[in-house]
Amino acid sequence: MGAIREQAERFWNGEITVLQQHPMTPTGESEEVAPGVMFYQWFANFTAVRTDEGLVLIDTGAWFNQEETVRMVRRFAPDRINTAIYTHGHVDHALGMAAFAAEGQKNHVARARVVGHRAIAARFDRYKRTAGYNGLINARQFGLPAGWPADYVYPDTYFEDRLTVAAGGVKFECHHGRGETDDACWVYIAQHKVLCTGDFIIWAAPNAGNPQKAQRYAREWAEALRAMARTGAEVLLPGHGAAVFGAVRIRQILNETAEYLQSLYDQTIAMMNAGAPLSEILAQAAPPARLADRPYLQAVYDEPQYIVRNIWRLEGGWYDGRPSELKPAAPAAQAGEIAELAGGADKLVARALARMEAGELALASHLIDWAVAAAPDDREAHAARAKIYAARASESAATMTRGIFRAAARESAAKAGITLPDDSRKI
Asked: Which residue stretches of 13-118 are H helix?
């Protein structure tokens, strides 16, 4: 048993958890999971398939590790890249293509065909328009220096619903489905019974919320997963995390992830139809209890509450049911009024620290944000804010939650002139 299969077994049995090894951990391990099908576990996984007409890549790695991605593929085979299929246009999946294109140009071989859903072009165009914003939110989410790519290799072959790509006698069935993105597709290689899901499966609670990113589509995501479950696949290669082997296990992970999403969608819509405000839905909607212990549905990246918010945004707009929030007073004006009622910003700081000591971090966060908004240059207020948000970050398992809280803590620590303790978690 190779490293990929061994790891897949250990993850499935709970011997390794996603808390111990995050699904985005770039192990660099690779294994031939079917004849001529090489799977790479990378920050974003990708697959190389050998055919009589060259290699077909399903995803191409990220823009920040593209040179190493090329080297990894070349250790498998020196063949020309015949085709690259993007499962979607996120920069960790599609932007390694530039290095493969540069390699082909250097070696004077024909450029690979690049296949993707038609909406990828609009995504790349948007990324160019919003490069600064995307760099900032990526830095906030992952705690890395801000940066964003400027160059994109657009597909030259687009499709709408489905497309079968043929190369050297191997057929790659590409199926569009809206999920984490509007340009997503999953790929089935029938002759090998290999299913490449892209980010429809990431070995974590589905990334269908993400407070800093564009709209996600929980209901259609569930539909796509159920369609994949009908393929009869015997090997599942996810966008992040461990491979899955065996038809029974594959149907389970696909159908149960669909159930997770469908349940949140149905609960949200039912409560919206009953007139519930967003705050009430957030307090009550939850994934099915029977799925709570599934190793592939842990909330280590996204969270169920964020998924509910995205469903609300898609189906009902941005008004949350609170009239005061329709045209609110400026945050600083609100904070000033609250500070005056409390007897000063220092009273809010003291109360925030008391709530933190009592373990009520959500309330502490509201209080300290009011204090800082009312007294933006107060070093003690910022020191307290740094302490509170560092505590919230340390207790948060989800990457994006921890990233936002940690960014707030760093911001106030800098203004208070203090140093935060290291956070050893990398993702």
From this structure: 66-76, 91-94, 97-106
* DSSP H or E stretch at residue 336: helix 331-342
Average pLDDT over residues 251-261: 98
Integer Cα distance of 350 and 135 in angstroms: 35
The tens digit of pLDDT for each residue in 296-339 reads 999 999 999 999 999 999 999 999 999 999 999 999 999 999 99
Label the pairing between strands 113-117 and 54-58: unpaired
Residues 158-174 have pLDDT tens digits of 999 999 999 999 999 99
Is the pLDDT assigned to residue 427 strictly greater than 90?
A: no
**If you compute the radius of gyration of the chain from its CA atoms, what whole number of angstroms results?**
23
Arithmetic mean of pLDDT, 180-185: 98
**Any long-range contacts for 168-173 (C-beta under 8 Å, 24+ apart)?**
168/51, 168/52, 168/53, 168/54, 168/82, 169/51, 169/52, 170/36, 170/49, 170/51, 170/56, 172/49, 172/56, 172/58, 172/83, 172/85
User: What pLDDT does 424 receive?
Assistant: 57
3-state secondary structure of 251: helix
Q: Largest Cα–Cα distance of the chain, in whole Å?
A: 77
Strands (E) across 121-272 are located at 157-159, 162-167, 170-176, 185-189, 194-198, 235-238, 244-245
| Count of CA atoms in the C-beta half-sphere (13 A) of 161 | 0
Q: What is the dihedral of CA 34, 40, 41, 44, to 10 degrees?
A: -120
Locate 206 and state its tokens. Answer: 């589905």
Domains of the chain in start order, with CATH, are: 3-261 (3.60.15.30), 329-416 (1.25.40.880)
- pLDDT bin (cut points 50, 70, 90) of residue 206 is very high
